[in-house]
Backbone:
């Protein structure tokens, strides 16, 4: 590979930079066993923009998140070195929030599906409280509903305000005209693959 795995040195690298970080998105999901597609890039969340890094065949891409310190993280079991990884619940949330940068809402849903058995109600509520972005939570509710997991839906719906803003499922996809509306989430479904 031309270098040790990023999981061996990310903690030291970010301590050297003096910046917060965590292994995120599909890379975090992969650490929990969700590998719908082989990853070529290690995805890391931090608080300010960083250029992508390439060391040998290893590539790192950074996403920026304000309030990164609010995101729950944990140390992976059996890790060779210290490493911050977003919890399964925070990973699912981030996959929806950053869906456009990982290949779309369908790719996010595909990655969340294997994580569903790991998601816990109390921890999910903790993430929703910390992030406090109802529009993202509406999309997350829609996706979890479409994936058929009824257990978490009450937690999500109870967290959302009574009056919801009308949103499209995928923010990057075209026009809003003639899209089916899923009233429970106030989501206009512009995905050809996800149905509730």
Residues:
């Amino acid at each position: 590979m031309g270098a040790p795995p990023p999981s061996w040195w990310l903690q030291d690298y970010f301590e050297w930079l003096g910046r917060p970080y965590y292994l995120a998105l599909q890379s975090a999901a992969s650490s929990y066993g969700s590998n719908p597609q082989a990853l070529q890039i290690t995805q890391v969340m931090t608080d300010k923009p960083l250029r992508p890094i390439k060391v040998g065949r290893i590539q790192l891409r950074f996403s920026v998140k304000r309030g990164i310190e609010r995101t729950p993280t944990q140390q992976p079991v059996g890790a060779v070195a210290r490493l911050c990884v977003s919890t399964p619940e925070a990973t699912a949330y981030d996959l929806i929030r950053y869906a456009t940068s990982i290949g779309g809402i369908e790719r996010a849903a595909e990655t969340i599906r294997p994580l569903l058995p790991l998601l816990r109600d109390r921890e999910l509520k903790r993430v929703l409280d910390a992030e406090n972005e109802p529009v993202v939570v509406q999309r997350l509710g829609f996706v979890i509903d479409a994936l058929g997991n009824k257990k978490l839906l009450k937690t999500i719906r109870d967290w959302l305000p009574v009056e919801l803003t009308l949103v499209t499922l995928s923010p990057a996809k075209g026009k809003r005209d003639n899209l089916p509306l899923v009233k429970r989430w106030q989501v206009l479904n512009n995905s050809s693959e996800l149905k509730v």
User: Anything to note?
Assistant: The beta strands are 21-23, 42-46, 53-55, 58-64, 73-74, 85-86, 167-168, 181-182, 187-188. The two ends are 43 Å apart (CA to CA). The chain has seven helices and nine strands.
